[in-house]
Amino acid sequence: MSSSIQFSSNNYRSRRALTIQFIFLIISISFVLFHKSLREYTDQQQQVGFYKSDNNNNLLITFVNAQNETRATTSYNPFSSISEKIASFKLNLYRLTFTGKQAPDKFDPESSDYWQGIGTSALGGGIVSILAILALLFFDTVRGLGCFGGIEPTKQLFYGREQRKQPYGQCQTFSLKIILAVMLVLIGGLCTLLIIGNVIFNVSFENGRVYFKATLVDMFNTTVNLQTVANRIQVASGSTSDITDINTLISQQQTALNSTNTLVREIRHLNFLRYFLLMVIAVVMLSVPLLGLLGGLTHWKEFALYGVRFGYMMLVCAWILFTIHFAFAMVTQDMCATADRYLQGTEGNTTSSSELVSQVSSLVSIFSQCSNSSQLVKNSGVSMSLVDGMLTSLNQQLTNADSQKRDFHLVLYNVTNATSIDFVAANPDTKANVQKSVDSILLFAYDLIPSFLTYNNCSSVGEKFVQFVDSGCVGMLSSIHILWAVFLVIGSALIPLTWFNCLGYKRFRKKRFVIPKERQPEGVEIALHLT
């Protein structure tokens, strides 16, 4: 007795030690994965390399010390880190049209060959779904004709309603229960993965929608502010030229903002319906093996019968949803890859008869120009020669004939101290004019110049656009691949599962082990009693 107690105690201690080791192992793995993710995120941020200035003085000196129109241009490109992510999710499939020629893989909604290539690539799922519908009709037909054994179970498929003397054995029934239990675990795991992928896709879509709208609004507001600052600079310089590029950019952005708001709103409603329907379908798919197993546990054949019905229905849904999500994944990857080529400057702008495509192309061209030159507006109407002339004029007014004159771009004092610098010989007769000039030029230097550079720097819109691409392309592509892969596996697993439920309809009977008695004629029974 004591030895058995000691053995139980040792067994408990060993299990507890294993449990503690397992917990520490999980914590260690989680820490390593978190550290790796944090390091990758840090490297990604360093790779993006948004341009930041320490203060306005450095920004001013950088701007003033430049010698030509390209002096404010940097090597900033916030979109370089997106290419590798998009390429990692790309499905390199050989696409064919209905006539057998190769279909293009570049996003072109106006091309029939492009959509034919998408259709032929996802054609397999549509064919299987049609076969599943025919199989459902076939099952109902043969069942109505009594081809599954009638009242008593039978080991033969097409036997009619005649009773058999050899019912299924206990081993055959129990093994089918084990198979259905394993299928329940498999389908349950796949449905869980389906729900997770659906949630990730929905979250990625919502984040992409929010970042997309925020990017457009931020870019529009930035361009409006840029227009305001440019107007002030032109007024201060006495220039009357029209800032055509900024006005054109504002018009493009306003049109794109109005058209995309309506489109995004409609897509959001469709995505909500897709999200809700997938949740319902995931639950119904889980009920297919569950009904079959309930039929085996309760020996009620109707459970297995409903499992067969739902199995055929979900088989059709699984392959249809696989076809839709696989085609959508290909279209999404083509859109993201095409946009990425625009942003990297390897794809020229294309014209299209579609208004939507034209608007998208207009937006992409803005970001393409932004990524290639690091400037939102290249020809803003503010020239460096104008700034240099204004600074030269100011230096002449401040110094006059002073031999210790210094360039204005190093005179970074406040307006109230600008006329009390020791080495600046300000003539009392012209002090008022000097003060007025210093006031306007310093306002220009401390406000307009840094504001202009800030608004015209692509980092102001590039950061939000990178967030949009990360959520819209990277996040949605990763989750959409999970969804179509899960539907592919579920669609394949439902084929044998539905057949197992058909077997359960035959084997799971309350009297599965009772051999029916043969009826004897009444006269024979009386004769037997008499003998």
Layout of secondary structure:
Layout: H1 2-48, H2 56-64, H3 80-88, H4 112-121, H5 123-144, H6 170-237, H7 244-298, H8 301-343, H9 355-373, H10 384-399, H11 431-456, H12 459-507, H13 522-530
Helix pairs in contact: 2-11, 3-8, 5-8, 6-7, 6-11, 6-12, 7-8, 7-9, 7-12, 8-12, 10-11
GO molecular function: intracellularly calcium-gated chloride channel activity; volume-sensitive chloride channel activity
GO cellular component, one term: chloride channel complex
Membrane topology: Multi-pass membrane protein
Order of helices and strands: HHHHHHHHHHHHH
**General shape:** elongated
Please tell me the overall pLDDT.
Answer: 62
Total number of helical segments?
13
Rounded radius of gyration (Å): 37 Å
Instruction: Give the distance, in angstroms, between the N- and C-terminal Cα atoms.
Output: 64 Å
Would you count the extended β strands for me?
0
Low-pLDDT stretches are 1-9, 40-79, 401-446, 512-516
Q: Mind summarizing the main beta sheet? A: none
The helix/strand class is mainly alpha
The helicity comes to: over 70%
Relative strand content: under 5%
Structure, explained:
GO terms for molecular function: intracellularly calcium-gated chloride channel activity; volume-sensitive chloride channel activity. It is a multi-pass membrane protein. Belongs to the tweety family. The protein is mostly helical and 531 residues long. The chain has a domain at 106-151 and 168-379 and 476-508. It contains 13 helices and no strands. The longest helix is centred in the middle third of the chain and has 68 residues, at 170-237. It is elongated and about 95 Å long.
